[in-house]
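Following up on my earlier thread - several people asked me to post the actual chain instead of describing it. Fair enough. Here it is, all 71 residues.
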Amino acid sequence: MRVLAVIALALWLAALPALPTRADDALRLEPPVQGAVLRGFEIGPTKYAPGHRGVDLRASPGGQVRAAAEG
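Reply from S.P.:
Thanks for posting it. Predicted structure:
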């Protein structure tokens, strides 16, 4: 039983994402478009209440949209 617990712990630790080793390695996010915020993030009073869990940005039709981060 103890061996199984050690193996399970090792697998769990191996699955954790690696933490950045320096501040320069931290995730950097960029806006996907250079537009104004039309509607911001709104959360309801509880976890499952209605809300707007995103951000709407103004963009021109046919304009370029980029990923907010690598990956």
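Strands lie at 37-39, 56-57. That should answer part of your original question.
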